[in-house]
Design a protein that fits this description.
Elements lengths: L9 H12 L5 E3 L2 E3 L10 E3 H11 L8 H19 L3 E3 L20
Antiparallel strand pairs: 1-2, 3-4
Helix pairs in contact: 1-3, 2-3
C-alpha cells in the first residue's frame, strides 16, 4: 500500500525509540560525528544499562548528571532495549542496523 512504511524490528526499532522518540541521535564532538554505534564492541555481552549509558555519552551527556531530569528517558530507552532486543543482555553482534553488510559492521542513519 502506498504511504505505508515497513515496521521496524530489532535494532532498527530500538534506534527509532532512541532517536525519533527520545531525541538521542548522536552529536558532533571536536568536529567528528559521534553515535551510539561507535561505543558498541564487535562482540560480547551488552546489557540494557550499558546501552543506555552509551546513548547518553554519544549525545555528549553525562549519564549520571541531573538524574531527576533524565530518569524517564533512561527508563524508556532501557525498556525499548529489552522489548526490541528480546532481553536485558544481548550479544553485541545483534546491535546493528538491518542493512548492515556483515556482523560487527555498523552503519547508522536509519532511525
Amino acid at each position: 500500500m502506498e504511504g505505508m512504511t515497513e515496521a521496524k524490528t530489532g535494532y532498527d526499532a530500538l534506534m527509532h525509540v532512541v532517536c525519533a522518540e527520545q531525541g538521542f541521535c548522536g552529536c558532533t564532538k571536536h568536529g567528528l560525528p559521534l553515535h551510539v554505534d561507535l561505543f558498541i564492541p564487535p562482540r560480547g555481552p551488552v546489557t540494557a544499562d550499558q546501552f543506555v549509558e552509551w546513548v547518553f555519552l554519544a549525545d555528549d551527556q553525562n549519564p549520571n548528571s541531573d538524574l531527576a531530569r533524565w530518569q524517564g528517558c533512561k527508563d524508556a530507552i532501557r525498556a525499548a532495549f529489552v522489548e526490541h532486543m528480546g532481553g536485558e543482555v544481548v550479544d553485541a553482534e545483534r546491535l546493528q542496523w538491518s542493512g548492515s553488510a556483515e556482523p560487527g559492521t555498523r552503519t547508522h542513519g536509519r532511525a
